[in-house]
Specification:
Two copies of one chain form a homodimer.
Chain A lengths: L5 H21 L8 H11 L6 H12 L4 H22 L9 E2 L2 E2 L1 H4 L2 H20 L7 H15 L4 H13 L1 H5 L3 H26 L4 H28 L2 H4 L5 H4 L5 H5 L1 H17 L9 H12 L3
Antiparallel strand pairs in A: 1-2
GO molecular function, one term (chains A, B): metal ion binding
Protein name (chains A, B): Farnesyl-diphosphate synthase
Pfam family, one (chains A, B): polyprenyl_synt
Chain lengths: ~300, ~300
């Protein structure tokens, strides 16, 4: 894949396999009547995504010498939250998408009611996984992870960001008010906070000192924003083939994006600046943060 | 209200007011664009329900001398989970209800997308509230509460029960397989586990000894089942006026209930037996459990 170092490619493949295995373990098939629910939860998490968030959890956890089983549970919890948000986002009342990564969305493969319940089930299960003693022997670490994840995913985080995004799509007055500050805030809520949680979970599990936590927080902030700007750029510049989805969709829908607000060139400059800044924040770390540096380069240069 | 002692009536009114105040505090109005989400969350929790679950949390918490602020936070978290499940249950793809307690359901008052997000927001916020240090100074207690609530509300609990219930409604083969054991299991998952959590949360907050925990668990089990059988009886015997909803709805829909399986008389006997048993389980407690005894009598004798 363009923009991806060999080391990053190998690490992504390796870690993604580990996360898939942990998800299989945490979301088993069941024989009872409610098997349809579990099937839908499994279907929605085994979707061939890049698994960027779990990758960030696992990579930072390694930097703080966290036990792999702990890190994998936290990574799986993050992925469950990410996948639940996609399942609910795809529903007819929300984005009404029939396909995700070329496969039928959950409500198309099953039905709407099952998709609603599968999303609810994944969201709830994520907290169960984090709070379980198998995730960490120290209950203070477990309850911190639950608190942080709930804040990142809840009404002041991801769900709040989705609300703003939806209103911007449907309400002319809200759309008119979306300037660079407002759209930055929206993306910070909608995707930034979950990316930040993913970068911080390993530090929490490894009881990292405050200075290193702050460095990772700053890295995550810039990485998340860079990720979003590049998303907007790819919608204009990417080829449909590489993206695996219709491009120019945002523009056609009159959507406010970083590109519509800043123009192509300034958006590109801004993305580059953020990727550079993200890497700068990693100065307190030696080679152990090289994968995070590669991630920043990849997020900037990716073609899909 | 019929079946309700004066002491219970006063305690329900008092505790319900405390829970409403805590919910107001935990779900504030916000000024930002996402205010619509918070409005929908507030609307869905301030619905004039009986608040039976929070009442059980607060009453058992008092038995173990838990600080009121701790108990109220746990009670509010339980109510958020209960209300989120109603919001999602009422959606067109699920039960498609326009009214709840005589008021428009969340998706009618707002819109479907907002209702989906409000449910997600309440579910997530409940875990945030429990994991927050303000709920208890001991993180082991907080993470135990999160774990227990997630198990009660998740795919092996409430969400799993909702899946079975939905399948029983839509799938002839599933309906045909619903005998007394299967319907008991379904209700145990769908409502029983949350009632059990509500009875146990106070004991967890108060670090109650195992023997008393077991007594409460047994009480909660019988209370929850009694509650459901009486629900089924009221659908047949209740007056529409007292119930505030259409009665005979289950029968008309060909729904499998305890009444359709056992007949009126045996269902009534079974409910009485369970209420008696529930009270028996409270033997280890003196007068401090009197409100729980009154609850059992009320659940059996209520007319709505």
């Amino acid at each position: 894949m363009p923009g991806m170092s060999e080391a990053l490619k190998a690490a992504l493949t390796d870690k993604s396999a580990g996360v898939a295995e942990m998800l299989q373990h945490l979301l088993p098939e069941v024989a009872e009547t409610e098997s349809r629910l579990f099937d839908a939860m499994r279907y929605s998490t085994m979707n061939g995504g890049k698994r960027l968030r779990p990758f960030l959890v696992l990579t930072t956890a390694e930097m703080f010498h966290v036990a792999p089983s702990s890190a994998l549970r936290a990574a799986a919890a993050v992925e469950m939250i990410h996948c639940y948000s996609l399942v609910h986002d795809d529903l007819p009342a929300m984005d009404n998408d029939d396909l995700r990564r070329g496969k039928p969305t959950c409500h198309k493969q099953f039905d709407e009611a099952t998709a609603i319940l599968a999303g609810d089930g994944l969201l709830t299960r994520a907290f169960e996984v984090l709070a379980h003693p198998a995730t960490h022997s120290d209950p203070a670490v477990r309850s911190q992870l639950v608190l942080d994840l709930a804040q990142a995913a809840g009404p002041h985080g991801m769900v709040g960001g989705q609300m703003v995004d939806m209103l911007a799509e449907r309400d002319e007055a809200v759309r008119a008010g979306l300037d660079v500050a407002a759209i930055t805030r929206m993306h910070q809520m909608k995707t930034g906070r979950m990316i930040a949680f993913s970068c911080m979970a390993g530090a929490t599990l490894g009881k990292a000192p405050a200075q290193l936590r702050q460095a990772l927080q700053a890295y995550a902030h810039d990485l998340g924003l860079c990720f979003q700007i590049v998303d907007d750029l790819l919608d204009v510049e990417g080829s449909a083939d590489e993206m695996g989805k219709t491009i120019g969709k945002d523009q056609a829908a009159g959507k406010i994006t970083f590109v519509s607000l800043l123009g192509l060139e300034r958006a590109r400059d801004q993305a580059r600046l953020l990727a550079d800044q993200a890497v700068q924040h990693l100065k307190p770390f030696d080679a152990e943060a090289d994968l995070l540096r590669d991630v920043a380069a990849y997020v900037l240069d990716r073609r899909s």
